[in-house]
Write a structure and sequence with these properties.
This protein is mainly beta and 329 residues long. The protein has two helices and 21 strands. The protein has one domain: 5 Propeller (Tachylectin-2, Chain A). The longest helix has 10 residues.
Length: 329
């Protein structure tokens, strides 16, 4: 049985048992979507958002596309990880250096690092384009923005939850000005101080055929296990009806995470339900956060649905690692 390393106990992890007769490795919450536009003030949509345990409950950083259709970040809190109170105000960065830039923000990832701080990565709108933003909080009240790790254009940044070989480590997906295909691979980068990043390594590419043939990108923070780093990622397929976003998994080497040990040939979750297929952007399943209870191995995955809602799905670390190893490219 796969073991979670350096994990935390989450006895109040949101959970629903697998439905009778279900043979899928990942299954949806029966009451999806858990967050809609009605759950936030003047929201056209709430999706692609990040969640972490905090205190006796949970905190989140949410992507809100408001009535001006400009994506911004807001915070939220929950007792059970399902019903959320989302702030009416956009997240504000304390003592922000205006030269760094923050015109808009979307698709956040949040991790609790080994130093106790909660680090936030997001796609940061800056003059002339978009890149990965980086900041942190210790209490979800005060937020501090750090220097941008990379030049434009880059998306889907996520920190590893601890240093690797003494360095901070991040996965990202360099892209082009339009954010489309052509630069659709996952890369690894490291830093001694969270300011200067280098030692960039190519991790994995889109496939020539199938559900991940257009571009791929890292999802929630990698999970440390005795099999390696478990990475949930999204893969995008080009179809005659447009792009289709699905969910897959990979296992990366524990000491050299740019080396892929296993990677799913088959998707884990694909847009099937109405709330995943119909919205501002059709046919999207976009994982951004996961909660893992180290005691049981249970995992709750939060994902964006059709660029409109937040959905919740479940699995276990053991099951997803087993599936990834048995169905690897």
């Amino acid at each position: 049985m796969a073991k979670v390393i350096n994990g935390m106990s989450i006895p109040n992890l949101p959970w629903e048992d697998k439905p009778a007769g279900c043979t899928d490795t990942v299954w949806r919450y029966s009451k999806n979507p858990i967050i809609t536009r009605k759950d936030a003030f003047e929201a056209n949509s709430v999706f692609n958002s990040a969640v972490v345990p905090f205190g006796d409950g949970f905190r989140g950083v949410f992507r809100i596309d408001s009535y001006d259709m400009l994506p911004m970040l807001r915070t939220g809190k929950s007792k059970d990880g399902i019903k959320w109170e989302i702030s009416d105000e956009n997240l504000e960065w304390t003592d922000r250096n205006p030269e760094i830039g923050y015109e808009y923000g979307y698709d956040p990832r949040v991790i609790k690092f080994e130093d106790g701080k909660y680090y936030i990565c997001w796609c940061n709108g800056v003059p002339g384009g978009h890149t990965i933003g980086l900041g942190y909080t210790e209490d979800f009240e005060t937020f501090r923005q750090l220097e941008s790790p990379f030049l434009v254009y880059n998306r889907n940044g996520v920190l590893f939850p601890r240093k690797i070989n003494g360095k901070y480590a991040m996965l990202s997906r360099p892209t082009n000005p339009g954010g489309g295909g052509g630069l659709g691979s996952i890369w690894y980068s490291e830093s001694p101080d969270l300011e200067y990043w280098g030692h960039h390594r190519d991790v994995m590419h889109p496939t020539s055929l199938g559900w991940q043939n257009n571009k791929i990108g890292p999802g929630p923070a990698p999970i440390e296990t005795d099999e390696g780093w478990l990475l949930i990622y999204h893969g995008v397929m080009s179809s005659c009806a447009g792009l289709v976003y699905s969910m897959g998994a990979a296992i990366l080497d524990i000491d050299e995470p740019w080396k892929v040990k296993y990677r799913t040939k088959k998707f884990l979750l694909k847009p099937w339900e109405d709330y995943e297929c119909v919205g501002d952007v059709h046919t999207v399943v976009f994982p951004c956060a996961s909660l893992v209870d180290a005691d049981t191995g249970r995992m709750a995955i939060y994902y964006g649905c059709a660029d409109t809602y937040v959905g919740l799905a479940f699995t276990t670390v053991d099951d997803i690692i087993k599936y990834t190893k048995e169905n690897s490219l």
